[in-house]
Write a structure and sequence with these properties.
alpha/beta, Rossmann fold, two-stranded antiparallel sheet, 12 helices, binds adenosine-5'-diphosphate, binds magnesium ion, binds zinc ion
Amino acid sequence: MKTYEDLEGDGGSNIIGQVVQLGEKLRSRLDKIKHKVALMSGKGGVGKSTVALNLSLALAKTGAKVGLLDADIYGPSIPLMLGMKDAAMQVEDNKLQPPESNGIKVVSFGFFAEQEHQAAIYRGPIISGIVKQFLVDTNWSDLDYLIVDLPPGTGDIPLTLAQTIPITGILVVTTPQEVASSVAVKAIGMFDKLNVPMLGVVENMSYFECSKCNEKHYIFGNGGAEKISEKHNIPFLGAIPLNSGIMEGSDLGKPVMITQPDSPSAEAFTVTAKNIAAQCSIVAAKLQEEMQAETTPPAN
Ligand SMILES: Nc1ncnc2c1ncn2[C@@H]1O[C@H](COP(=O)(O)OP(=O)(O)O)[C@@H](O)[C@H]1O
Ligand SMILES: [Mg+2]
Ligand SMILES: [Zn+2]
């Protein structure tokens, strides 16, 4: 059997050219997006999507242009959390036009209603293909932030995605319980081995905001994510309270950032979003420094 190395030329299909072209298309298309931030967690149910959405809205409130890519193909929950169940993605000039909600552009597998329940049969390469296509063939126009909600876990799919999307940095979302069970540490370890920069860690359901005594109750323990941050040398970027308003917001399609913008919960998202923005600037500046060092000939 012949391999690619044995082929003289490529038999006319120009497959190599096509792959190179796709890579270039991906890069040039994504050049217009300043920061690509992917959220991941060790397991599902830690509130990753809730955090991704409210952080996107908090960033948009600061005046930034924000896109949200729901890359959790197995459980696309962003459309429901935004009350966009009936929104459809239009195709114009061969490009997906991302529907907008509250000032952010959203792309989700959930908009393709019939495909939704078939997602479970898709395997890694197909899924990363779909997500790549969502990235490249979407008319994002220019964005300050593209927030990517990755599937949970440390399996092949989040791994492949994190590697195929040119990411500014990974944001790990944990809960105090998850910290205790060390799944989050596993997720961090996975990216340690790869060349994907870690942006920081956010602790969700960090404490209970008590409306009776106005104090924070640390029901699941205190300071777990901060310990992780110290141990692995990853910035701790914020703590989001456990609050029924956050949950109801997600379940009713009315995010807390929009319906209760002055609540302590919204404030927690705002503070975290600002820390993320600052961290993105630091990572981008470092990258530019590195690139300059590579292209500038040493002075002698
Ligand atoms: N800070 C929070 N306070 C209260 N409920 C939350 C909070 N974050 C998430 N939830 C709820 O937890 C459930 C799982 O959240 P979700 O964002 O879907 O998790 P994941 O994307 O990690 O699977 C949802 O019902 C959501 O409303
Ligand atoms: Mg989710
Ligand atoms: Zn209390």
